[in-house]
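Email to the structure team, subject: Secreted protein model.

Hi all, the expression group asked for a predicted structure before they design truncation constructs. Nothing fancy, just the tokens so they can compare against earlier work. One-line instruction: predict Secreted protein, return tokens.
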Amino acid sequence: MDDTLLLLTVAAAALVVGLVAGWAGQTAAARRKLAREQSFFGLPGGSECVLVTHRDSSSPHWSIPRHDALALLGLAAVIENCGAHPEVAPHDTGLQGFGARTEFCVGDPTAHRRLAAHVASLLPGVAVHPGDESGAGRGTFTIGGTAYRVEPGVVEYVLLARLTAGEGGRPVFLAAGQRPVTHRAAVRHLVRNRARLARRHGADGQFCLLLKVVNSQAYGPDVVELVADVTKAATAPAEPKGHRAAV
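Reply from the structure team: attached below.
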């Protein structure tokens, strides 16, 4: 074997080794990423989860409102990637307690029974105003003494939370908004920022974020601002009296 052939053989062998090492490294990195995602969402391969949503009151049949349906579609890719099996359930049917399987609860807490129950028990520091007889003030959030009022199509708020409780330790994710477009915006924020949220709060951590959807009449769910991490205030007992209006 002359020197040229030897060099070509060595180069080819090095290339093969490099390709195999690169493929192995990428595969290992992909597996670690998937494991982190499964841990954050509480969705190990083969597990079950439930997505709880409104019924569409304008339809005579069991159907899901448009924005909520699009929000659930946003979660579907994550659930499929984790290798989990979803069930969709209406908010007003009897469901087991939480913790046994991951739950995604999406909707308006003034009308969504399951979501209202979760807010009351898991986020006692959050008050959701049901509105007066004329409907004024409906959906206003009061957190830590500050009121966050909806201005339809201009400024709307939504709570995005990851909470754990009950037996089993699986998380419940809440997207509790003042209008349907905000539910979709919160789920989109969760899906797009899942890696950053997991790094910031830990794979098993709890959080409650207050998000603001800006000018939805023009931009839909696309323009979202983080108002504050309200985890401490939202999980603390509610203040009995008095609040100041949000700016």
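The first helix runs from residue 3 to 41. The mean pLDDT is 83. Ping us if the truncation boundaries need rechecking.
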